[in-house]
Amino acid sequence: MEASTCKQDVLQKKKNAVLVDGVILNGPITDSKAGEKFVEEACKIIMEKIIQKADDVTEKVCEWRAPETLKKILDLEMRDTGESHQKLLQLCQDVIHYSVKTNHPRFFNQLYAGIDYYSLVARFITEALNPSVYTYEVSPVFLLVEEAVIKKMIEFIGWEEGDGIFNPGGSVSNMYAMNLARYKFCPEIKEKGLSGLPRLVLFTSEECHYSMKKAASFLGIGTENVYFVKTDERGKMIPEELEKQVQRARKEGSAPFLVCATAGTTVLGAFDPLDKIADICEKHDLWLHVDASWGGSALISRKHRRLLHGIQRADSVAWNPHKMLLAGIQCCALLVKDNSGLLKKCYSAKAAYLFQQDKFYDVSYDTGDKSIQCSRRPDAFKFWLMWKALGTTGLEERVNRALALARYLVEEIKKREGFQLLLEPEYANVCFWYIPPSLRKMEDGPEFWQKLRRVAPVVKERMMKKGSMMLGYQPNQGKVNFFRQVVISPQDPTSRDIPTSHLQDDGKDRILSGFFYCYPESWYCGTSVTCWAEVAVSPVSVVALVFF
Ligand SMILES: Cc1ncc(COP(=O)(O)O)c(C=O)c1O
């Protein structure tokens, strides 16, 4: 029913309508029955078009359209009058249809993928309840849930006690940590601001997440005061280089205050040597923050937690259960070893209208003042319900399985002609080049790399336009564009789907088959002369596109 018809109905039914400024005050402002029906029908669409299709490899990962075309299809304009429910349901279907299915078995594009049914239901519940997690009076359950989850995460880090806060993303966690480390270094900054401070310098590796730069600029530290430490060939921070950089900063007369190590780098999935870095931090009295946004989940696995050896020596840790553990975006915690209330001292503003100290309950549960936010989503609840459902062993299996899948992919890449691994991965980031037939016999040299650089973007474009598979590509530290395939989804191939003895039957191999679906017999059988790669290396041969 349209809003105007609804209003007329109300007027007719309510003879004694109380009108103030032309607004009916004693009539329903929405038709709740119609609303409920709308929700019910929309839920059916969500079930059929998203959830039931999440493991269907025959579906497309994406239905690519160029922005201008998509604008026309979507009817984006917002009009003076409301649309009918029927039209709205159609719009919902369109939105789903043209959105990327990050839960599709062939979505390997990002550091998140797949679907976890329990965290999804938790999200439905919190969307419906619409709580804001700042005071116990408005979020009693979610505050206790957050406390329980943080306690458990702290246990896995290996601290005896600590503190923490869920916040919107690893980038924000890193920013929190940087500010907290600076506050510890000079607490008067909270009142006095930056004036009068020495030049503060922080250290992180060349392979760190870009949020470090953003945080430094946002916090007024300045990107030039982020000293990037060299990494080894696997992308790990070199401790000796860190030591040199700290010495350099001291000689310059600046004030080093923080080292940010990365546990699971974004592109290569490398883990910095935390123990050795912690030694340097201890020696120079520097705050050690570990950005374990991506790699933190390995802590749950008895087999793989050694990757984070030494993490218990960190002062703070960023850990995103929304990545490998599939808790649903966003679900990220900043965890702090300090248990003396540093987080609260650093961030609190003591708003009297919200955090009254004379409330009738224990106000230490009003934890919202530890946050830089006011309204805050109950993100810990998704992780909690999922953890309840799967148990720690279920979460552990999820990590072990992702890393086993990555291993499987690595072995396949080694076997297949035309695929070249960048390096043996430590984690679930499988980085490789695809070398098309036309380049396979070429001598290694600048021309080869110049041509290879153009291959990944073309493959990516073709895969997206077909909707066959999504994976990322990038140049990195002097290496030309290579693919990064992140294998974490539980919808990825199982032994049921991959008859390892028939690996040449590529259509059944979900990990790699997006490539094959995209490039039929022509190249993977090694028989074709008309190869897509010719298009990649020679943009003028547009005609070749026609053959695909
Ligand atoms: C190592 C690392 N840190 C931080 C982030 C940022 O996390 P978020 O996307 O939750 O802000 C990422 C994102 O991929 C990351 O890989």
Automatic annotation (TrEMBL):
Keywords: Decarboxylase, Lyase, Pyridoxal phosphate
Pfam families listed in its UniProt record: Pyridoxal_deC
Cofactor: pyridoxal 5'-phosphate
Gene transcribed to yield this protein: GADL1
Subunit-structure text: Homodimer.
Protein name: Glutamate decarboxylase like 1
GO terms, biological process: carboxylic acid metabolic process
GO cellular component terms, A-Z: cytoplasm
Residue positions where N6-(pyridoxal phosphate)lysine is found in the record: 323
Superkingdom of the organism of origin: Eukaryota
InterPro entries: PyrdxlP-dep_de-COase (IPR002129), PyrdxlP-dep_Trfase (IPR015424), PyrdxlP-dep_Trfase_major (IPR015421), Pyridoxal-P_BS (IPR021115)
GO molecular function, one term: pyridoxal phosphate binding
Species name: Meleagris gallopavo
